[in-house]
Amino acid sequence: xDYKLMQPPFEMKEYSEMSNKEAxxxxxxxxxQIPSRLEQLGAFSQIHLDYxxxxxxxxxxxxxxxxQIQSKSVxxxxxxxxxxxxxxxxxxxxxxxxxxxxxxxxxxxFI
Length: 111
Known about the structure:
- The protein is mostly helical.
- The chain is about 55% helix and about 0% strand.
- It is flat.
């Protein structure tokens, strides 16, 4: 099963650069995505996610078993960068092509 990333139907920019209207639209769109993201994560992980304490423990244990940090060579990073959609590049890579620490803050809610 492929795990699909969220792709907003609008251009993403830093939250601090959004107008109040843009921030509200983004927040409302994000909240609307929660049920489908939980469904996708549940299907991907084979864990029943029902907002219970137990499902939170189960998904955290699944995460610890399945998610790994991998060191990659410059050529591997360059290859991934070339295959990354343009809208996502700004959130992954800083000017020096290293992992952007803001990425974890931005992407963790989507897993």
